[in-house]
Design goal:
542 residues, 5-stranded mixed barrel, 16 strands
Length: 542
Amino acid sequence: TTTTTTTTTTTTTTTTKPKEGTKAPVGVDKEIYLKTQPPPSIPAFIVPMPKTMTQGDGVIGVSAELKISATNPSDDLSSSFSRLKKLLFSQPSKAASISYLTIVKELIVEVKESEVALQLGVDESYSLDIPNDGSPAKIKANTVYGAYHGMQTFSQLVIFNYHTQCYQIATTPITIKDEPRFKHRGLMIDTSRHWQPMNVIKGVIDSIIYTKFNVLHWHMSDTQSFPFESLSFPLLWNGAYSDEEKYTQDDVAEIVEYARKRGVRVVVEFDMPGHAAAWCSGYPDICPSPHCNEPLNPASNATWKLIGGLIDELTGNGTRGGGLFPDNFLHVGGDEVNTGCWSSTPSVSSWMRDNNMDANGAYEYFVKRVHDYAIERNRDPVNWEEVFNHFGTKLHPRSIIHIWLTRATLARVVAAGYRAILSNNDATYLDHTDTNWERFYMNEPCADIPDPKQQELVLGGEVCMWGETADASNIFWTIWPRSAATAERLWSPREWNKLDEFRPRLEAFRCLLHRRGVAASPIIGELARNSPQGPASCFGQR
């Protein structure tokens, strides 16, 4: 066959379906052959699209006994190989009995460094080559994390052809060179508004890696509940909904390690001083009063003893890359702080007067002290947008601002020299079920930031699965498929921004999620979390 590639930009490529008159291999029905080809103008049903990709017009089979080998073996790679084979092969295959079909029997994974810590900015690049002659397919990466992404791309290229009853890859030969546009690409879950079982959290992790997300932001606690086990302050989880809705430290360690083995960082958030009423259930002296229990009491030594001890637990007493949550980010909230309780509580208002503070000054004092704790323990503090809106350049240079109110703030944050994460609520909040996938897809982080140096301070973004209306019964079909739109925006080159090009890939990806056992809503309808409107093919969305 002849490789047919059309370059659309300096960084992306696209191909089309073989022209009319293309000959199928000898012995293959042409209609069956063409069923393996992507439709016109669609490079491949891959989400997110790679940085560069070239394709031909061939078709090869994939052995259901595919050998996956590593040139630099490790336990993590071996585990990922087992997962990949389970993902790929769920049907009996007759490929061996089809004489006219060239079969690829091996996937070789070359990783330069198999033992690299998972932190922001780790190398996630990879290349993928799938020849047309049956010789081994190859993934090359500098780290295991790039290799994981290469395997995900490979998994989306392999289809089961029900006509030939074998696994196939269309438009071969294929050459892909790929890397993410942004370093931080995440999904937030909220286990305070509704507790989520361990298997659900693991299922979320399994699903987000399909689109190359690399962060699980774990909003652990809030006003409603505190499900986390603290060994230093064991009464904190008196704030849990029930004894059945808690996470032991063994549970947490299991989730963190489960995520790490899949290339996902876990960034924990304990929101403070607001959104913290549940803390008071076990330690009422850290709250202003029994009737006015948040924000946390900045005037009480007990508050600071607890916060310092909790951060010690989370970070392993300040070990960079260590502790229960090894990630170098620590999200400490800071949003929606109503200081009325401080002003109306005599002991707190007296403390503010004695220290020449008004309520805003007490808020600044609280934020700065928490930042100091985090930085002393080798963590970079992450705060929601209000903290920057209140204090601007008074914040420590290591502070990271998480935008949620309006995307316009992002430009001001990076212009001030701070790093930022984008989760503007009008285009990333999954609980906003009236926000469609198109808005997610067109949410360009750098739209108002022309300066390349300031663009580098945009670490990436997150979709947010706030839990007020999401529990284990509906979390997956609220997350999917809209999150895939953000995943492509954060991974693929900026030039991939055409809604009509993305739509058929999103439709196909939704159906792929279903085949993998992940619930995903139809992409049509007034609400994003909805049911099919009547009998139809998965691809029809009707």
